Amino acid sequence: MFVELIATVFAGIACAGLVMALNIITGRRLPKWIMPIAAGAGMIGMTISNEYTWFDRTAERLPEGVEIALKVEEQGWLRPWTKVWPYTKRFSAVDTGTARRNENLPNQRLADIYFFGRWSPISQAPMLFDCAASRSALLIDGADFGADGAVADADWHAVPADDPILKLVCEG
């Protein structure tokens, strides 16, 4: 976040510098208000660029085996351009490389889910999936496993069969 702030300030300085150079070239014929307008436009442009490139920059740094399952795009009336081109504000990823199976329960998978947000810290939660019954259970508070490996105290929730996280875990 600090690096983006510094980049935004420098974008404003660069745009103001370009206008200053253009003003000198034209014999100081440009109005005085054009330099702060150029600086502000450069800073706004840099901020918009950072918003739209955040997802790609974050996604390319994911380790091997972590796959993106769900993207949440955002639109807002305070940013009218997002009505035409929405940007990704948060996404969920599944660590398919370390997903675990139990031979006694072949339809169940245990995987780590990661939640990424534009201005939020990364959150991780272990989640149990029942692929045959299309349901899932978060295991944030831990879990008690029975002798056969079944989770004894899982709080199961129904999940649509076409849920992207369920599909990624069960098909992977």
UniProtKB/TrEMBL annotation:
State the name under which the record lists this protein. Uncharacterized protein
Instruction: From the record, give the transmembrane residue ranges.
Output: 6-25
Print the keywords alphabetically.
Membrane, Transmembrane, Transmembrane helix
Q: Does the keyword Transmembrane apply?
A: yes
- Organism equals Sulfitobacter mediterraneus
